[in-house]
Structures are given as C-alpha cells and as structure tokens.
Amino acid sequence: MKAMRTLVRASAMAVTAALLTAPAAAEDGYRLWLRSDAPAEGPIAISRLGDTPTLRLAEAELRRDLPAAANLPVVVALASDPAVSALRLPVAELGNEGYLVRPSSIGGRQVLLITGNTDRGVLYGAFALIRHVASGGQVANATLRSAPKVKLRVLNHWDNLDGTVERGYSGESLWDWWKLPDYRDPRYTDYARANASIGVNGTVLNNVNAKADSLTAPYIAKAAALADVFRPWGIRVYLSARFSAPIEIGGLKTADPRDPAVAAWWKAKADEIYRAIPDFGGFLVKANSEGQPGPRDYGASHADGANMLAAAVKPHGGIVMWRAFVYADTDPEDRAKQAYTEFKPLDGKFADNVLVQVKNGAIDFQPREPFHPLFGAMPKTPLMMEFQITKEYLGQATHLAYLGPLFTEVLEAKTGRGQETVASVVDGESENHQLTGMAGVANIGDDRDWTGGTFNQANWYAFGRLAWDPSLDSAAIAREWAQQTFGTDPRVIGPVVDMMMRSREAVVDYTGPFGLAHLMATGHHYGPGPWVSELQRPEWNPVYYHRADRQGIGFDRTRTGSNAVAQYAPAVAKLYASPRTTPESELLWFHHLPWDYRLKSGETLWDGMVRRYDRGVATVAAMRREWDGLRALVDTERWEKTAAFLAIQEREARWWRDASLSYWQSVNGLPLPAGAAPPEHDLAWYKAQSYPHAPGNPH
Amino acid sequence: MKAMRTLVRASAMAVTAALLTAPAAAEDGYRLWLRSDAPAEGPIAISRLGDTPTLRLAEAELRRDLPAAANLPVVVALASDPAVSALRLPVAELGNEGYLVRPSSIGGRQVLLITGNTDRGVLYGAFALIRHVASGGQVANATLRSAPKVKLRVLNHWDNLDGTVERGYSGESLWDWWKLPDYRDPRYTDYARANASIGVNGTVLNNVNAKADSLTAPYIAKAAALADVFRPWGIRVYLSARFSAPIEIGGLKTADPRDPAVAAWWKAKADEIYRAIPDFGGFLVKANSEGQPGPRDYGASHADGANMLAAAVKPHGGIVMWRAFVYADTDPEDRAKQAYTEFKPLDGKFADNVLVQVKNGAIDFQPREPFHPLFGAMPKTPLMMEFQITKEYLGQATHLAYLGPLFTEVLEAKTGRGQETVASVVDGESENHQLTGMAGVANIGDDRDWTGGTFNQANWYAFGRLAWDPSLDSAAIAREWAQQTFGTDPRVIGPVVDMMMRSREAVVDYTGPFGLAHLMATGHHYGPGPWVSELQRPEWNPVYYHRADRQGIGFDRTRTGSNAVAQYAPAVAKLYASPRTTPESELLWFHHLPWDYRLKSGETLWDGMVRRYDRGVATVAAMRREWDGLRALVDTERWEKTAAFLAIQEREARWWRDASLSYWQSVNGLPLPAGAAPPEHDLAWYKAQSYPHAPGNPH
Predict the structure, then answer these.
(1) With bands split at pLDDT 50, 70 and 90, how would you rate the model's confidence at A18?
(2) Residue B494, CA distances (Å) to B331, B479, B487, B498, B500 in order
(3) Which of A166, A371, A517, B510 has CB 3.0 to 4.6 Å from A158, enough for a Cys bridge?
(4) So where's the catalytic machinery, residue-wise (chains A, B) (predicted)?
(5) Chain A closest-CA separation from residue B20 CA (Å)
(6) What is the pLDDT of residues B195-238, one digit of tens each?
(7) A93, A271, A290, A352: which is the annotated catalytic residue?
(8) Does the structure show a pLDDT above 60 at A10?
(9) What dotted CATH number matches B152-486?
(10) H-helix or E-strand spanning residue B203
(11) What is the largest CA-CA distance in chain B?
(12) C-alpha–C-alpha distance, residues A194 and A8, integer Å
C-alpha cells in the first residue's frame, strides 16, 4: 500500500520532470544568427524567376528563414529578367553585388521583389530581408537597398594543414584536409551560408605562416573541393603562399623574384591552380616577417615580390594581398615604425592587382592601438584593412569583448589629410581605387558554436557587416546581431547590447589603460606579463613597450623619442606631439609621462590608472549581473556557457588588475589611492603562474 | 504574361524543392546508437521508487528513449525497496552492477520491473530494455538479466593536455582542459550517457604518454569537474601517471620507487586527488616503454614501481593498471618476446590492487596478431586486456573495419592450459581473480559523430558490450548496433551486418595476409611501407618483421629462430612450432617460408598472397556496392559520408595491394599469377608518396 502511494507520487513527479526536459535539438549555438529554420506553418509564397545555383539558394534561404507569417508573396529575380527590367528600377548603382528589395507589381500581382544585377546580389538581398524580419521588420513594407562599399571582404584563416589553428580558440580547423577532397563535410556549406548572410565573399584557407605543401597538387585538389562548395554562395577561395615554395616544392635553388625561373614556376603554379579552381581569388603573402621567407632575403623589395606573384595570377583575374606586417629579424629603433618605413617608399611601385594588407594598428591587434600610420600614406596603393576577429589579446575564447567599437574606432579615424578617414582609404573613396578590401583574421573553428562562445559570433558578424559597409554603427550592428541571435524581446536585447557595447573598453581598462599595450605573457599571449624583460629580442618584451621606471611610464614616440608620430600626416602628428592634445586613451602609446602627471580629471596618472583597472573589473562584474538577470529569458545551454565564461572573465580581470598593479608598484613604489583594494597575491605569485598548455600557440 | 507563367511554373517547382529540403536536425551521427529521442506521443507510464541521481537518470532515459508504444507501465526500483524485496527475486547473483528486467506485480499492478542491487545496476537495466526494444523486442515480454563478467570496463583516452589526441582520428580531445573546471560542456554528459548505455564504467582521461602537469592542483580540479559529471552515470575517472612526476612537479631528485620520499610524495598526491575526487579510480602507467620513465631507470622492477603507487591509492580503494607494453631502448632479440620476458618472472609479486594491462597481441594492435603469450602465463596476477578501438593500423578514420571479430578472436583463443581461454583469464574465472578489467584505447574525439565516421561508432559499442560480457557473439553485437543505429528494416540490417562482418578480414587481406604485420609507413602509420629499412632501431623497420628475401618471407619464431613460440603453453607452442599446424592466418608471424611453400589450397605462398591482396580489394568493392544499394534507405548525411569513405577505402586498398606487390616482386623477382593485374605504378612511385600532415601523430 505504501509502495503504491510512493509509486503514484514518484510518477506524478516524473511527468513534471519530463515536461521540463530540454528538447533534443538544444540551443548549442550551431545556427549562429540564422535561427528561424523550418517555418512552423508551411511554406510561404516564394517564387523565383530564372535558374542558377545561387538563385536557388536565395529562394531556399527565404523558405528556410522567413517566418511563415510573411504577408506578401516574395519573388527573387535577376534585374535582367524581362519581368524586372520592365519595371525600370534604378539597378545600375547596385553594381555586381548590390541588391534591391521593394514592393513591386509583377505580372499583375503585388509582390516583394528581391533583385540585383547578379545572382549574388539577389542572394545578399534575400539575406538582407531575413535580417530585416529577424530584427523585427515586416515583409510587407520592406524596402532595402545596398551595395558593398568594399570589393574584397575576406576571412583569413590562420589554419595549419595539420588541423591546428594559430591563435585559434574554438577547436580545430574547419578544414578536414585529410579527408578532402573525397569527403565534403556538410559543415562547409553551413560555413559558406553564414558568410554569405553577412556579405563575406572570400576566404583564405591557410595560415599566413604557410607551408609550401598547400601549393602541391593534392592540396590544390582539396582547396578546389572547398571552392566548389563555396562557389554558389559567392565566396572565392584564396591561398596563403609561402614565398620560398619554388625551392621547397619546385626544386629550384632560389626564390628570388627577379629570377625568370622563379617567375615561370609561379606562373605555371598559378595556371595549375586555375585549372582546378577557375575563380581562384589569388594569394595572400606574409613575407620577411617573423622568420617567413621573402624577397628581402635576395635584396629585392616587397614590390618586386608582390609584382612577380601578381603577374602570375593576372591573366586569370587574380590578385595578391601582400601583408605590411613586417617584423624584421634585426632590432628595430621602434617596432611601431617598421611597416611604414619599409612600405611608404614603395607607394606607386605595386602592380595594379596588388593590395597591401595593413593591420589596424602599428603593433599587433592590441586591445587599443592608434590607427596604422600607413593609412593615408600610400595614396597610389590600394590598402586592405586587416582586423583580427579572433581575440588573441582580448581574452581569447572566454572573455566577452565585442569588437565592433574597436573596428569602427579605427575606420572612423581621421588620417589628417583633409576629411579623409581610414574607412575612406580602405573603401577606395579617398583615391578612387576600384580594388578594395578588408580582411578579418577568423575566429572560426570546429567547436559546435563555431567561435568558442556565443558572443564571439558577434565579432564574425560585425566584421562581415563592416566589410560590406564601413560606415555602419557598431551599436546598431550589435542590436541586429542580438535580435537575430536571441530574439527580439527588449528585456533581453537591452542588456545584451549594453554588455556588448561596454565590453571592449572593459578589456582595455583591466589589461592596459591609457594606451599601454603588449603587456601580456609570452607565447600564448594569455594573461598579464608586464614584468617580462629577458626575452632575446628587445621588442619581444613588455618592458620595451611600457618603459616604466621609478619616474614614469610610457613610450616616447615624439621627437624626443622614436618620433613615430612623424609617420602621421602633419595634422595628426601635431595632435600626437603633445600629451595635452593626445587623446588620453592613447596617452602612453605616444608619451613617457611621470607617475604624477595630471590627467584631465585632475587625478595623477597613477591614481587614474588604478581607477581604470578597477573600472574594468567593475564593468565585468556588472556585465555578469546583467547576464544573471537574463537567466529565465535565454535558453539554458547558451545561458550557462556565457555565465561560466563571465565568471572566468571576472576572475581574470581581477588577475590582470592585481598582477599589473603589483608590478607597477614594484617599479614606482607608490601606494594605492585610498579605497583601492590591495592585490590578492604578491608579485612573485603572479610571476610564477604558467600555462604550458594554453591554446592557439604557433608551431 | 510570359513573366507570370514563368513565375507560376517556378513557384510550383519551388514548393516541391521545399518539401525535399532536409530537416534542420540532420542525421549527423551525434546521437550514436541512442536515437529514439522525444517520443512523439507523449510520456509513457514510467515510475520510479526511490530517489538517487542515478535512478533519476534511469527514469529519464526510459522517457527519452523508449518508444511511446510501450504497452506496459515500467517501474525502476532498487532491489532493496520494500516493494521489490517482497517479490523475493533472485537478485543476489546480480552483484553490484547487474540488472533484472521482468514483468512483475507491484502494488497490485502489472508492470515491467527494472531492478538491481545498486542504482547503477538499475541504470544498466534501463539501457538494456532500450536496447532490447530498439533491436525489435517488445516491452511487454521483456525478461532480461545480466551482470558484468569484468569489473573494470575502462576507456583509455590517449588525449594530450593541449587538446591533441595521439592516434586520434576524430578531431580534438573531448576534454576542453583550458575551460575546465569552470565550463562543463554538455557534451561531457552525452559522453557519459553513451558509455553507461554499453556498460563502460571507467575512463582514463589522459594519454599514457603522460605529462606530469596532469597531476598538478589545477588539473586535478579539472579532472574533478569531469568526475562530477560522470559520477551519476556510474563512471569513475582514472589518470595516467608519469612515473617521473615526483621530480618534475614534486621537486625531488629521484623517482626511485624504493625511496621513502618518493613513496611519500605519491601518497600525498593520492590523498590530494581523493580529496577532490572521492571515487577516483586510480592510475594507469606506461613505464620504461618508448622513452617513458619508469622504475627500471633505477634498477627497480615493474612490480616495485606498481606496488609503490598501489600503496598510495590503496587506503582510498584505488587501483593501479600497469602496462606490460614495454619497448626497451636497447635492440631486442625479438620485439614480440619483450613483455613476456620482463613480466612473467614478476607473477605473484604485484600488490593485490594492481592489474597488469596487456595488449591483445605481442607487437602493437596490428590487423591480426596471435594472442599475447602473457595471457595464461601469469596466473597469480590479474591481467587486464588492452584493445585498441581507434584503428591506428586498420585504416584510421576512413576505412570500414568492424573490430568485433578481432576482439572475439583473441578472447576465444585457447591459452593451452586445459580449456582456458583468454576471456577466462581476463574475466578472472580461470584463477578466480576478483579484480578484473578490460581497457579500450578510445576512438572518441570532438568530431560531431564522436568517432570520425558512423561505422567507427560500432567499435566503441562492441568494446563496451564485450567488456561487459566477453562471451558475446560479434555478429550479434553488429546486428544490435546496426538496428539501433539505422533502424530495424531488414533491407538495411542485412547488408550492414554483412559489410561489418567481412570488413576486418578485408583489411588483413589488403594490408598483410598470412600473419604479416607492421608493414605500414613510419610515424603516422598510414599506408604501406614494407620497404622501410633505414630507421635507426632495427625493430622500427617493416623489414625486421617480414624478413623477405629472394628465397622467402616471414619471421621465424620457432626454435630455429627467436623461439618466441616457447612463450606459449606447450599445447599451443607445439601447434605454432610447425607451419603445417599453425593456422594459415598466422603463418608468417611464426615462420619464414619459401615463396613456393604450398598452402593448404595447393597454391604457392606467393600466389596465395597475391590472391589475398586481390580478395581484400574485391571485398571493399563489394562493400561499396552493398552500401550503394542502401542509398534510398539511409538518411542522406550518414549515407554520403560512408559512401565517400568507402570510395577512399577502395582506392587505398588498391594502393596497399599494388605497393605491397610491387615491393614483394622487387624482392622475389616472381611474376604475378595469371589474371592478377599489375600494380598501377612502379615501386619508386609508391616509395615517393608522403603524408606530412597525417593526423594522430604523437608529439
């Protein structure tokens, strides 16, 4: 009798438990910002005029992602279709990739027309409509028009042929080179689809620290299989080329770009690649940097090297992206000056299918850097922007740092040449370059959620959107991403966007305020290491960058120092010449200042620094509280993962703050300002931390 | 008008296309053999008596996996529950992990009772019922009873702390050490669940080629987080211990097991681990093998080393698994003899919580090896079987090779001591050992389908089932796996089981028939390399193993050779002493024979070899045809992946065959028998193939 009662009670309990069980298809983040799969109420009225693989994809995407509630038939069609051209729409300005979405009358029926001059344009239009609706817009009144301002919108994968990813924090490489070309993982399609949805139209498959093997016949066949998958999504494949490949796999004795045999080898190699990949995009090259081979090994210039490769791909319509990130193997006067010093004199010397790819700042993807002085300094050369989407220096996978504000801060920067901005250099408007590009070092791996964390997806998204249109607002991008990713509930979107928009400045605050940079631990670049001073080359050491001593801190890049400020146009150089006119956010990048230097707030520099570190930690704590408040409004799996990450971030923000303050105090001997908590451990403890198995290290 | 017609036509076409679109939740293999999620018709009547986390899991599994059509209420309950003990069922024989499933009357109601003496037993019973039903059985008449014959059923992960997996072909390590212990990936739960469903009750988290770091406080905390996830599923965590850890992380000058400071260090380390993981299983040790440190470095014996560690974990109930795979750094007389020579004299010298873990054969997980001579030779010592589930030598991820027949061939082997079989040594029956175990080197990584291919899942499954009961039939296991994995349609199951049961012998045929072994390429062990002869140590070279010359081929392990046959019990040694009484499948393992040696078929050895290579290729081609015939009956994603893999396998079976025959012909100068196709390329071509980025290489 008692057993029966227990049974009944347990049974009732169990039914409740079953109702609470999570669905089998959990919110694991795989779907990214494209989440409205499989409309519940059956297909809506979507029609297609014309038939290409890409038009079919546009149609399928609308069927898959548009909510069933769409209240107007949708038609996808090329602008050249007679039914569309009869409407005499202003399509010329859409170019090769733009789209127009608007209510129209076709064949006597009122429909929503999605059109463009190419099927790629139509596909982008379909995704624009999906984005519009997922962000709360209606189908009925949708009127959308856009054409990309930048021609090459390219991800750079620092993926090695053995499956590891340099500076990758989200698993292994997506490319299963070993099983290619035979096995084409369905995930390759999902990758292309996600990129197409944000306008990315190119992908460099392999690491800029390249192996020559990637140019051998078996690897060309593997790349070709990926290109076949990507093609209907409007995405071209590029390869990083190792400059010494003619020696390593070509049997030549030299890779001198002026040697006709070398040029012939590259030409034959390009011909071989184009036979397998007719729309191959071209080569990305890291030359004479961090030990990579290059033309300088032979006394030739970067232009000699780039132009030789450019000639090889030119007959096929290919291009060369030549990186300006040079990092010589001799000690520099000021590492920040190297790229400008080497490349500025080459302006005008590059072939017309070469872009010089310049990192956003002069050092290396720090949480904050002033814009790179090459922007505006090479008017005759298309300069391609290189952003880093993977957060090598901003907490890697686990720290929430939305990079939209970092990207736009650089793009909006004035170069000092009239009203020219970095964006107008990159998008070609400034000098009327037709060949333009923006590259993002991808944060994508084979983790189920692609990027090692939900909020990291926003950085991939923001890169794509800004490459399409560098004038977009980073908060608006955050909002549209959040709405697509978490739904449009304002109780969620408000806090999520708020967290995102505060997050990057928080990282700056707790890792290196006031323009400090390169203070991280060696190798894996994870965690603080401002005390590191004993590495072989001076500029490998954080002490090289902060130059802190008993009197003061900061790198003097004015005339009394390295005079790197002179690399900027006079209007900007003048601002940076004095601490008073230098934005305080970049103060110690340009100036060595006494610890008691008075900030605009009236505080001393030291007190201000402590306050910034504390602000960074406090911001993360606040972000964590905001996220805690969303527990009931976000699905369990994604909520818990971000909650775990925010706990890590808060702990590590404190670690950065405490370790840094410990070290600065050991240098300046100053007490903490009143109210500031002492570091949890002594400096020796922080110095003793080590992370031998941290991810993302180069081989 | 024409536009409208086109529109209508396109629209109709599109609707058809939409209906053909694959569902969002594709069959990507993630669910393994547990596929009946989310019953369509609501929860069936399932009740639970008692409340432990594991009982709750048993109940939840039944709700999740039992089809809604179950026609009898199901009750899960401990045998000690008054409602069950009143039934006076024969539960004593179930031991600690066994289960009983049978129709019973509880509280006046007719129910299907699932019971056991522990909640783990009940959980295993729930999975047994799910397996029963998914294999076509009914709930109403289910009467199932089983208790495991082997106590420790353990996966060995050769996973490194940096996320790579030695001999792993399915992505990175499942363990995201970097984000542990903070972030517990939901996948850890799914891993534990899959293991529990087949009876695996332990997992060694890290590579036997261990880093001492895995025993530091941060990594103990990470392992503890995993142990917390695994515990309710009845799975204990073990760690591989690096023998020199007292030096590397303990600051001692020696790791000599006879040094009291070393013993004290290990005791303190064990105490530290057990504070974090109260049910920690114990240590797995690879010592004095392939460069790993061990007691022999100090002139102490393997027993000295094992017993010292055993004493450290003994107070906590832990055990030590000490590997017999020794591979000394001096040239051996015959590598196959080393383990026996070193371990046989130690029989009786090990502490009672030590198992000696012995690979199935005397070399190293070859496609076929005779059973290891230590089985039956150490009656006073519990010998743990070590199988390799990951197919290092059997085509790695892409070749279909079902290992059930390999496992059972070894388990059923007679040791020559009366009726003793290897299985009866391993399950303790032969010498009445209570401490028994079976280890499987895992093939699990973070690939979406866990094992890099659907059919590789079957090897994980078969290992678990055979560890539970070594007497199970490999074909029956194949059938129950196939039914759970692909559904019970006999049009699918017939061909699938047929393919599986032929597959391993096909690999033997095309890689090394008649007992040939260790013929693979160096390092990554992928593809043929029978010609390799110039590696530093003799036994690293394939020529050491096949000993082919103009006159003959094979390794003489009889009295005229290394006399390894004398390591077997006399009854077996006598059989292996003569080629006429040696099974032809093991012929060249034991004998060096002339090329014109007459096989039982009447053919010469050479002609027979060629025929076996051809048979291997033909079998793969036939498997491919069988799979082609299932295209309409298997979901697209899994069908296409296996189809791509079978295409690779057929090409590579030919490669193995052609490369091997080219080489044998270069040695013996013999023509191919009539009708045999000549190799596609010459020997130089095969020798020139290289795979610098093959997966799974050790660091």
Answers:
(1) very low
(2) 49, 8, 12, 6, 10
(3) A166
(4) 290, 364, 392
(5) 11
(6) 999 999 999 999 999 999 999 999 999 999 999 999 999 999 99
(7) A290
(8) no
(9) 3.20.20.80
(10) strand B202-204
(11) 97
(12) 50
Q: What is the pLDDT of residues A309-346, one digit of tens each?
A: 999 999 999 999 999 988 777 767 899 999 999 999 99
Give the Cα separation of B246 and B264 in Å (integer).
Answer: 10
CA dist A129 and A115 (Å) reads 11
> If you measure CA to CA, which chain B residue comes closest to A47?
B11
The residue in chain A having the minimum alpha-carbon distance to the alpha carbon of residue B179 is A398
Mutate to test the interface with A, among B112, B172, B229 (most CBs of A within 10 A): B172
- Give the ipTM of the model, two decimals please: 0.94
Q: Is A392 a catalytic residue?
A: yes
The answer to whether the predicted template modeling score (pTM) of the entire model surpasses 0.90 is yes
Any residues with CB less than 8 A from the CB of A375 and at least 6 apart, and which? Answer: A358, A383, A413, A415, A422, A425, A426
CA neighbours closer than 13 Å in the CB half-sphere of residue B296: 16
Asked if B204 contacts B157 with a C-beta cutoff of 8 angstroms, the reply is yes
Q: What is the length of chain A? A: 699
Predicted confidence at residue B446, as pLDDT, reads 97
Interchain CB distance below 8 Å, A108 and B4: yes
Interchain CB distance below 8 Å, A75 and B108: no
Q: What is the pLDDT of residues A168-181, one digit of tens each?
A: 999 999 999 999 99
Is the pLDDT reported for residue A509 higher than 90?
yes
Residue type, A307: N
Please write the tens of the pLDDT for every residue from A453-482. 999 999 999 999 999 999 999 999 999 999
CATH fold for domain B46-146: Chitobiase; domain 2 (3.30.379)
How many Cβ atoms are within 10 Å of B549's Cβ, its own excluded? 12
Amino acid found at B11:
S
- Strand order of the sheet with strand B109-116? B46-49, B74-78, B109-116, B99-106, B144-146
CATH code of the region B509-555+592-688:
3.90.1330.10
B77/chain A closest Cα distance in angstroms: 10
In this structure, chain B runs to a length of 699
**What residue spans define the domains of chain B?**
46-146, 152-486, 509-555+592-688
Rounded Cα–Cα distance for residues A573 and A377 (Å)? 13
Known catalytic residue at A364: yes
